[in-house]
Fold this sequence. Notes:
The complex is a heterodimer of chains A (224) and B (353). Chain A is mostly helical and 224 residues long. In chain A, 79% of the residues lie in helices and 0% in strands. Chain A has helices at 2-40, 50-65, 68-74, 76-83, 89-113, 117-125, 130-161, 172-182, 186-214. The longest helix of chain A is centred in the N-terminal third of the chain and has 39 residues, at 2-40. Chain B is 35% helix and 30% strand. Chain B: InterPro entries: AAA+_ATPase, ABC_transporter-like_ATP-bd, ABC_transporter-like_CS, ACT-like_dom_sf, MetN_ABC, MetN_ABC_transporter-like, NIL_domain, P-loop_NTPase.
Amino acid sequence: MWANLTPLLLEATLQTLYMVAVSGVLGTAFGLPLGVFLATSQRGELLSAPLVNKVLGLVVNATRSVPFIILVVAIIPFTRALAGTSIGTTAAIVPLTVAAIPFIARLVENAIREVDSGLIEAARAMGATPFQIIRKVLIPEALPGIALGLTLALVSLIGYSAMVGAVGGEGLGDLGIRYGYQRFMPEVMAAVVVILIVLVQLVQSVGEGIARAVDRRAPRNRGR
Amino acid sequence: MRDEQATGAAITFDRVEKSFAQKGGAPVMALSDCTLTVEPGAITGIIGRSGAGKSTLLRMVNGLERPTGGRVLVGGRDVGAADGAELREIRREVGMIFQHFNLLASRTVFGNVALPLEIAGRPASEIRPRVADLIARVGLEALADRYPAELSGGQKQRVGIARALATGPKVLLSDEATSALDPETTQTVLRLLADINRDLGLTILLITHEMGVLRDIATHMAVIDGGRIVEAGPTYDIFVRPQHPTTRSFLSGVTGVTLPAFVASRLRPAPPEGPSQEVIRITFAGRHATDPMLARLTGELGIAVNILAGAIEEIGPHPFGNLLVSVETGRGAEARAYLERHQLLTEVLGYVG
Lengths: 224, 353
């Protein structure tokens, strides 16, 4: 029996990785700049644009308050327009990305806000433009926090990706539901759960490792 | 560049005002009518208590704060009116160091010193040797690839100084740069600033709440209190003849000359009934600072002098002494007249019975 299931599990794992990776990259591509903007656009800040800040904040909150399974169904027309179809694994990337953007934006915003305002002042005193301050001061200084935030986002995306079976997306979650639950194969369910646990552990360890590697805020033992 | 500096002040504060809007009330005046000239090539210190407005005043020089009235001129340019690219250009000519250093934790010493040059858009081929020079200038060659978290406070401030000098500014602003450092480290950082001032002809404007910092390196000083400049001039003159009560109270902390408690507690503003002593502060300055004036007072006039406290110190190359003495109240006026005649300064502090 396992001989038949192994390819299934392998395929489902790859599908999950595909969905999480693509939506993670797209979510970061949009979420990072959005988070930076949210962190720097309140009144009197670098990119002071209080009205736009408020509107974007509302949109982010609204998106984040919709449960993911509802979001998947609610944006089906949008998904169809973008992916050409509203069902299948590739189509599932659209709702995953839509959910990831505001989540990542908030995490990035928090990380950027942690940066000591004295550094912004120092950079302004050097004659830096707001864009230079963001690129050379805020993002590098917030990098450990951003790395941890992205780790958290990827872990959440792995969880979300289990729900896209609702619109014909495949992957580990879908396999677990169809075989483990609907076909009464508890061993498949168990295998899916184990693979998910391993995936999350892996993402978490790698993410924390990267965050540690870029964090220079505490002295290191240099072996001297 | 020299000619340009010689023609006028490095920094001019011209009737500068700063008010902050306050929710549901009249605006708060942080600074009013501040006029001050900072000489090119001088080290000028502004002293004041926290909240006196000195930090706001300093930040106007590089446009981190804007005056709500009056003008701040740097090298003849009106900083308050400058915007965008023009303001950024002025800022590249004004270096700044900070109390808490404000170094990037994510960059090495080298990277921190390189930052202003990167911001100014200089090519990497120019940045590398320039940064190496700057790091050598502040004596941190061995630590170029270390991160700030691995440095001591004094080393961090040296990085701050190297960074502030990177774009070759004409003016250096120091915002309480030694306030977070221990006394010994403070001395080494102040010496470094004095060396830079001498070697590069850099104008330094610093703010502090420690009179000792001004005594040690400032040639000129100003005292700010309640948002107003209450006294300004050469440091030596102000140390010798402080006019304003705030200045005097700052000075009493640094000259080490305060009345012993048993006298201070009995001090009266007017002579009490019966025999009493007049308590006098004598300030020795200039070439009389080392003359044995008290011995002559006793020898020539026969006035007995009790010495209560005293110290002699130096402001730059000039010695200057402060002595607290008491004499019999009936002969106080005579004694003071004699001392004044010999160019010493006297001040009656009170009387004890």
